[in-house]
Each structure stands twice: as C-alpha cells, then as structure tokens.
Predict the 3D structure of the following.
Amino acid sequence: MIGIVVAIIVQPTMGSISDYTVSRFGRRKPYIVIGTTLDLVFLVGLATSNTVLSLAAFVTLLQLSANFAQGPFQGYVPDLVPAAQVGLASAMVGIFTILGAVIGTAAASLGLVMGDFLIPTLVLGLIHFATMLSLLFRLDEGPGAKDRQGRSWPAIVALVWGTDILRERSFVLLVASRFFILGGSAFFIVLAIPYLERSLGMASPDDRATWLLAITVVAALSTVCATVPAARISQWAGRKPVIYAATGLSAIGMTMAAVAPSPLLVVAAAVLIGVGAGSFLAVDWALMTEIIPRASSGRYMGISNVATATNGVVSILVGGLIIDAFTRAGAQELGPRAAFLLAPIWFAIGALLLKPVVEPQRVAVSA
C-alpha cells in the first residue's frame, strides 16, 4: 500500500517538474540519472536485507527512486516521436517492456534455483544502470522546457493534480481502462509461483523455477510477436478495436490457466495471454500518446503510468486475500485458480471503460 501511494504521488509530480526544467543536460535526463543511481543503491540494500522491516524499507525507497526517474522518462515518446510513427514506437515500448519482464523473471528463477537472490538482484541493478548511461550519452532530448511564467516550483507541483485534468475525459477513462486491463494480466504474473505450488502441486523449487521460466518465455515471445502487427492493424482499423480483441484473447487465456490440469495447458494459455498483452501494450501506448497534450507530456504520461505502477500491487493484494481465504477454508489448491478467474472480470471492466474514449484522427500511413 505504501508503494501505491509513493507511485501515485512521485511519478506524476516528477514528470510535471521535468516539463518545466531547464538544464545543460535537458529537461528529463537529470531526474532519470538521479533516480536510476538511487535504484542501484536501494537494490543493493534490498538484496542484502535480513529482516522484514529492512525489506519493506528498501522496497519503499526503491519505489520512490524508480518513480522519480520514470515520471520524466514517460514523456519521451510524445516528445520525440512523429505522429506517423507513434504506432511503431508504441510497439517498441511494448517489446522492451516485456524484455525487461523476461530478464527479471529469469533472474528470479535463477534466485530460486540458487536459494540466494543477492547476485541476480545485483545483476538486474547493473543492467538498469547501464541502460541509463546509454540514454544519458546518446539521446537527444528534443523539445525545450515549458515556460514557468514566473511560478515557483511549489506552484508547479500544485498544478500536477489540478482539476483541469478532469476536462480531459478520454484521458481519465483511458487511464482507468489501462489499470484494469494491465491488472488482469498481472494476476498471471504475480501469482504464478503460488499457482504452480498449490494448484499444480509443484513442491520442488527447481520444478517451479523451470516451469516459471518456460511459461514466462512463451508469454514473452508471444507478446513480442504480437506488438508490431497489432500496431500496424490499429493504424487502419483503429486503436480501440484492437484493444477489445486483446482483452478478449487475454480473458480466454486466463480462463484456460484457471482450469488447467497440467503445466502444458498453462503454456498454451500463456500464448493467448502474451498475444493479448502485446497487442494491448502497443496500441494503448499509441492511443495515450495521441490523446494527451504534448507540451505537458511528462505530467500526463506520469499520471497515466500510475495505472502501470499500481495494477500489479493491487492484483497481488486482491489475489493474495483470495488465496488466503481458500487456504483457511482447507482448499488451498483452489485459491490461485479463483484469483485467476477474477482476471476476465478485470478485462471486461477495462473494455467498458474504454468504450466512451474518443479516438482522435491519425496520420493515414502505415505504423
């Protein structure tokens, strides 16, 4: 819950501040460098924690530093990508988002096998830091900062949650839709280990690690394969129809996983979930980029990414409560399956929230 609060406050605030920042390195980079450097420090603390209290403290600090960097980072696609290439750029965002998830899951699987998460966590931190250095030295930031018009920084911060956002009705609805659709897929990700252990009876950590990696790789490959075609299709068919199709595929995949008697059927379900997730990631980002005011892209993309930052936490909280309830009732094998069946409901809510969103006209070229 603390992580949710930190993400909601920090990411949009830093995104908005970066919209107005003037520095020799650009308006986004200083915050990305600071946040990512602190990420590495807090990951070391996380990896070496020996108590629940220290673990919670470093997770909270990591949320703070990560969102400090991610808020400004979210503004880059609207800042730098021409309208005709938004579809392709959004597909690339989806591909590399999944690539990050695969690397993280592979590290988690390695940690399960080793019985020690220190080295895998440190490796993730170094990869994270190296990509930041690439951005720092190679990226041209593009547009300059917005004019503060004499306002102080506290006044700029106060504008972040101004009621003018409510006038952007399509934006608000799209953020809410993103939360539920991403949250539906998150059930599959964050509850995978208790699902393999309790619902499929995998007592061995080695077996769980092997199947977790296999399922993740299949889902990731399916996601990557779907992103570019989905972006291209959405360029002429529209963004919303592709998102509807994505939620349908993901809902079918999650239902299959919920009733699967064996891990092989879960792998098949992962294909549908991956295709749905890839299609959604590519097209949703494009639609968000087209809707927001570009001059305030840090602010709006920071707010929109609150849905991305919080859906997994909410899914693991809700799913965990369901699993605990079934465990107390003496049916622990049914808990993860029941939690998975919440996902189709999440997808349906996301689709309903998307319906009133007004899709703007796009440049009539291929993505």
